[in-house]
Amino acid sequence: MGKIHSSSKVGLGKRLIFNLAQAKSINRLAEKYPGLVDRISVKLGKEWHGEIPWTPLKKPIEESRVALVTSGGIILKSQSPFDLSDPKGDCSYRVIPSDASPDETVISHLFYDHSDVKVDLEVMFPLETLHRLEQEGKIGSVAPRHISFQGGIHDPTPLVEQTAPEAVRSLVEDQVDLAILTPA
User: Fold this and answer.
1) CA distance 159 to 162
2) Is the pLDDT of residue 8 over 80?
3) Angle between helix 36-43 and helix 6-32 axes, rounded to 10 deg
4) Is pLDDT above 80 for 36?
């Protein structure tokens, strides 16, 4: 892998700052005008088509294997960060093993305020809570691996067509009965 020249670093830094400022502006507009994002999405043809997928739980929670799926950009320090400079958004995902500790993780995401998650990872990725619920017999078991996406995705086509089905296949392989979704 080649060195990144200082001019490339400056360009990347400017793009990241612009993306962050853009996201904050959109969030402020969405808070002030709640229906605005929906109306813009419809105008851009990004509305949901078809039935909302729903699968009822087939066994009691106390017998279910549970996994976490987050769009909070939680990654292991040893993993490659998400590509935060991709204007379409990075549709890849990272696998977080069940035995990962909070001090092994970092956040690779631009589009939400990380302050609470930095204080307590459980806010976004409640893995320790799942282990406690398993010990208390409130869930059957904790899945061996969990999935993390970076939610700043402006073109979800690759996510829908490729990476989400891959992630789902890994959860099926792990015999996951229930996934807890934690959106950023």
Assistant:
1) 6
2) no
3) 110
4) no
Residue 7 pLDDT exceeds 50: no
CA–CA dist 54, 48 (Å, integer): 14
Decide if 57 contacts 64 (C-beta within 8 A). yes
What is the reported pLDDT for 162?
93
For residue 25, give both structure tokens. Answer: 């502006």
Q: Using an 8 Å Cβ cutoff, are 92 and 156 in contact?
A: no
User: How many CB atoms are closer than 10 A to CB 11?
Assistant: 13
* CA distance linking residue 59 with residue 81, whole number of Å: 36
Start-end of H helices in the chain? 6-32, 36-43, 115-119, 127-135, 157-158, 164-173
Distance CA 141, CA 148 (A): 19
66: its two tokens = 């549970």
Under a CB-based contact definition with an 8 Å cutoff, are residues 177 and 142 in contact? Answer: no
Q: Token pair for residue 133?
A: 């619920």
148, pLDDT greater than 90: yes
pLDDT (0 to 100) of residue 84: 87
Does the global pTM surpass 0.85? no
At residue 75, what are phi and psi to the nearest 5 degrees? -135, 160
